[in-house]
Design a protein that fits this description.
Dihydrodipicolinate Reductase, domain 2; seven-stranded mixed beta sheet; 326 residues; Rossmann fold; 2 domains; alpha/beta
Length: 326
């Protein structure tokens, strides 16, 4: 079970989600091992046909290939699937949901619900109240994404590179195409024919599906030598004029957001501030004087929490709230 899977179990426990029986599933090689939940060891079972019988909600973080095979199996056996992979996100029949942004999309689900990409989630949590009040026309976003977004092997690689540097040994890169230690790599996922990476186009397409198809998004996604927590520099242009105090007050009362914005006292969010936290943190709010109705902001979130595990659990909680899950 990977980093996100363990974070999902931890999140269920911390939020006291009403779990009758936890059924951890994994590949056959992991069957028989245990995971810790509410002070007890729970045996991992193989994810296969028959494993989902009696399961009400199945939270997937197994990758797109596995999800394409197993999600329909789980639905056929009676489960509602909340999938963290990219497999179902752009399927027009599958709702792509951030509970603070578009919970109403859950009402039309057909058994599978997609969890958006981590970088999209934190951006849209920040943009939703602004769009509702001032109508966003265009977004330019640059991300600074932690290695944990790639998984446990990337976390290990950054650690091993730091150890090698400290001991004067050669630095080896296997997970990423270049050394990540002391570096920033302007590539997340593969490059597409249009020159953008798959990660960048996820932000474009998911924003249109979740928030508004009329919003134009210009992204650059960068991997940085941070263990946990994605940061984003976001430039927004709105149709309606605004004041910075109004935007700050709007964000401060919006769900899932914590404003840290007092430059005079050096108050602004960093990845370390967000680590292990549920909120999306926003700071460096300032007007962009080069365009009409321009706004700059800095947005930080724990990519394993709100960017993955927490959002998935919140979807399950919202299913209960909307009486879509008993």
């Amino acid at each position: 079970m990977g980093a996100v899977g363990h974070e999902m179990i931890k999140t269920l426990e911390q939020r006291k989600f009403p779990v009758g029986t936890l059924v951890p599933l994994d590949v056959a090689a992991m069957a028989g091992k245990t995971v810790r939940y509410n002070g007890a060891d729970v045996i991992v079972q193989e994810a296969k046909k028959g494993a989902f019988v009696g399961v009400d909600v199945a939270i997937f973080s197994a990758g797109a290939d596995a999800s394409l095979v197993l999600a329909p199996v789980a639905v056929a056996e009676g489960a509602i699937v909340v999938d963290n992979s990219s497999a179902w996100r752009m399927d027009p029949k599958v709702p792509l949901v951030i509970p603070e942004v578009n919970p109403q999309a859950l009402d039309a689900h057909n058994g599978i619900i997609a969890n958006p990409n981590c970088s999209t989630i934190q951006m849209l949590v920040a943009l939703k109240p602004i769009h509702d009040a001032f109508k966003i026309k265009r977004v330019v976003v640059s991300t600074y994404q932690a290695v944990s977004g790639t998984g446990g092997k990337a976390i290990t690689e950054l650690t091993e590179q730091a150890k090698a540097f400290a001991s004067g040994k050669p630095i080896v890169a296997n997970v990423y195409p270049r050394q990540i230690l002391f570096n920033a790599l302007p590539q997340i996922d593969v490059f597409l024919d249009n020159g953008y990476t798959k990660e960048e186009m996820k932000m474009v397409n998911e924003t249109k599906k979740i928030l508004d198809p009329a919003i134009e998004v210009s992204p650059t996604a960068v991997r940085v030598a941070v263990y946990r927590g994605h940061s984003e520099a976001i430039n927004v242009q709105t149709e309606k004029p605004f004041s910075i105090p109004d935007v700050r007050a709007l964000l401060a009362k919006a769900p899932g957001i914590k404003v840290m914005d007092d430059p005079s006292k050096l108050v602004y969010p960093t990845a370390l501030d967000a680590e292990g936290k549920d909120e999306t943190f926003i700071g460096r709010l300032r007007a962009d004087p080069t365009i009409p109705n321009g706004l700059n902001m800095w947005v930080v979130s724990d990519n394993l929490r709100k960017g993955a595990a927490l959002n998935a659990v919140q979807i399950a909680e919202t299913l209960i709230e909307r009486k879509l899950l008993k």
